[in-house]
């Protein structure tokens, strides 16, 4: 097997990123501030325009970039907002532009100022990728897959990553030497297997699966007098009574991205008539009323891999110095809740902070995984708590404190239909701008208690 070192660079100052999705691009951007040379390894060919690729099967579906995520991206990629808007992305104000029929009825939206960027995953990833690959410190290996890790048996330090061209035999392996490796390869990550093969054992894993599936389709967005007075429409499910939900978001190219979702195996159909009939069956008819006369401009796409999965690497007794795992490779949420890209952005922010600590590699890597677990805890609780409302959900611990938290959140959602300020608090927490504690403020709890008393 051949060994490759970058020309004119100290091999001890090289980093490797596995995966060129959102998490991988963010990790690469951060590592460029700390290493003179960064390899980015990706199985797919990377398109020169905003378009879907094989390694991101969920890309054709709605991807919500939460407000906190947008702010982090704009920090690492200055003026990214302006670039995305120039490419056709839509500014979306969660206070003013979203019409949301929640579990308790229409949300009492009002005000303005909680703005994010509504765009396809393809457009966002394209804009990030163009910035990253233009950096002279980055060398990209496309159409290559990672075959394994190499760890120094004496020091426990990551030493190299074995890569090979896709569709080639094992003899074509190449060892890329580096002293820092980030696995951001998503749900298909092989790190757990590689570590087990190297004698590090298996990290514990949790899976919570509500058997949600969704179908998406693009529609032409009318302009002028026929345009909607909002930029996003959401019709929530109401388990255990109603397992179906839907939404539509304005994106680039004057299009609506429409998604229909069903839980407990009640999936939206694949045919045109079935797609519309499913929309007609939602708890509120408004989405169907928009779709029935709209012009579809794409086929119906489907996605079923929606389980929440968390590999607890932070609990592993032994860990190679210089290896970290982030993004869906460590904690993947049910994508219907739109948390993944923002958690990836926050993980990149954490990586930057940890590398700035100037600690040793062993301390950096273990500290990162431990802090990442703390970062993922609340989004995990939100996603799995919502999924556990479906009686068909497998896995998860529906403990008393989880049930209590979900009951309290249900009361908040009821109040959000009456009070715009409660709705604003809720969407700020959902967008990870504010901590969950703002939902427990005295002004919220007092009105909740009054509501209970009046019943």
TrEMBL record:
Keywords annotated in UniProt: Oxidoreductase
Superkingdom of origin: Bacteria
Annotated SUPFAM superfamilies: FAD/NAD(P)-binding domain
Pfam families hit by this protein: SE
Xref: InterPro entries: FAD/NAD-bd_sf, Flavin-dep_Halogenase_NPB, Squalene_epoxidase
Listed GO MF terms: flavin adenine dinucleotide binding; squalene monooxygenase activity
This protein's GO CC annotations: membrane
Residues annotated as domain Squalene epoxidase: 302-362
Name of the featured protein: Squalene epoxidase domain-containing protein
Lineage: Bacteria, Pseudomonadati, Pseudomonadota, Gammaproteobacteria, Enterobacterales
